Please model this.
Amino acid sequence: MDYSELVAVYEELGSTRSNLEKTRILSELFSSCGQSLSTVVRFSMGRVFSAWKDEDIGISSKLMVKALKKSTGASESRITEAWKSEGDLGEAAQKLLEGKTQQTFAVKKLTVEKVAENLSEMAFFEGSGSQGRKIDSISELLSLASPSEAKYVVRTVLGKMRLGVGEGTVRDAITDSFFPSIEAFEEGKDYSGDEKLLVDERLEEKIGYNSVISFFSLDSLEKGETYVKGFDKIISTEEGCKKVKNILKRFVQHGYDVTNDFGEVATTARDEGIEGLKQLEMTIFRPINAMLAKKVDSIEEGFEEVGKPAAIDFKYDGMRAQVHKKGGEVKIFTRRLDDVTNQFPEVAEKIVDLIECDECILDCEIVAYDPDDGSMVPFQKLSKRIKRKYGIDKMSEEIPVELRPFDLLNREGSMLKKSYSERFNSLEEIVSEEKGVLRLVDRAVTSDVSEVSGMQQRSLAEGQEGIMMKNLDAVYKPGSRVGYMVKLKPVMETLDLVIIGAEWSEGRRSGWLGSLVLGCSDGEGDYLEVGRLATGLTDEQLEEITERLKPLIVEEDGRDVVVKPEVVVEAEFEEVQKSPTYSSGYALRFPRLKTFRDDKEDADSIEKVERLYKSQR
Ligand code: AMP
Model:
């Protein structure tokens, strides 16, 4: 497939905000892209590989600037300038190529396959010279690309497509592309044409019978027992159409939940229909997305969300881990689906015999503890192990960890559709506990608010984060922040901090300052960085921030700016962590802007930050 065809679709997608329209555009694309389907589906989501693959093409914006320098001949400072004014390196690439005086148009056309080939091979370049080879690989693509193609090559490489295409849109587009269209029955309409119709059995008497009509029941469709492939249209009642659509979407969603790859799902839907999707199964050693939790502010609100009675777990201050086991082999994946088995070899080794199951997947938290007294140590310390490549044995002695499983996703087959009670009971059956190695989570099943409150106190007293409340009847929904489990954490005090720097935003928000560098006072008239506030800002807030900060800019370097410390904000956050990155030695975890404090001229002191850090322990 010519890359230009895909680029035309990208442009169309980028020009609308309507999800329905995006779904329509994508479904047309998917229906027509033949052999390239799985690549095109992944590309449209800004991916080169499927999400579960551990490969990463490893190109930073900086390296991209170098590749652009090589292929356009422009200087780095000109590229950075264009990047800043366009707010996006892709747009900058397009402008630079358009501006090339003697544009030598490539004789060879860029194809989707060529882009996929070059990008995929980059993940395998290793060792010295690998950066140069990556630059060569991108430059080759850019030299074959037209200006608008270059824009999307750059965006694909950086994984930032900016098309507003989410998972739901891709799922719906796959459903529309590869299943028959769905139409509501119309009284009096002539259905005797030669289209092959699959008709709701409740309409049998009304529609009459002819050789191109087959009938189905919603029930058998739901069970995946209706053969849908080969039909042109599905006809049902007005409300039946919605149900049919939802059922079909559910098959596609199921495929994605267990494979984590819409490329594979699309190909399966096209080639094998519902039957194929139904048979897609979770595969051991191929991680799936973890179910996420909603946040609640009180125990009562928690019960409202998950019902009574509910399971109450300690919320550990550790790291989410999906543990896959097959026979004697164990692999551990993070919440971002990275394989960290090598970082925790002792866990993999010790738990093999403690989990009695040939094939299973456990959802767990890895919690670190003090080897001297067994008390828990916070995530921050544990995180050192995640990045470690060397000296791992020593690390495992210094920072030993315990695995705390809380859910079971697979036991010789998928458990996702079973209720949480069933999954947990099954988990209890296969886990043999050993302190310091593997223990189920601290947990109680109750409807009693005071019992929950007691657990919350105990969890905090032990240095954990709070509690999770879980719906006993709920299925497991990968990747969703559904209310099947909720988290309840204590609210932190806020800090008044001064903005000392910021960054010019990219994309839709270009022209606005964002990613605010926050500082606390050192008590001597200077400010120490305590983190960056980058998320959760509304357009109005960004506009206001830009207006306030622009006149205060004292220095600019690329997209970074330093500002006079005059604007004070009240920041909320989840935690204070120690940090080598910031000059205060601390970093706020998930800082959010509460309000502007125009009533204040100075920021809170480093002592207050320290006090908050200590009070968490
Ligand atoms: P958060 O990261 O604040 O959104 O909270 C959700 C995270 O809490 C999960 O991703 C887990 O890593 C962690 N967690 C700790 N203890 C539990 C537990 N008992 N059940 C579920 N998640 C837990």
Observations:
- Residues 293, 313-316, 320, 335, 365, 406, 441, 468, 487 surround adenosine monophosphate (CB under 6 Å).
- The chain has a mean pLDDT of 92.
- The two ends are 58 Å apart (CA to CA).
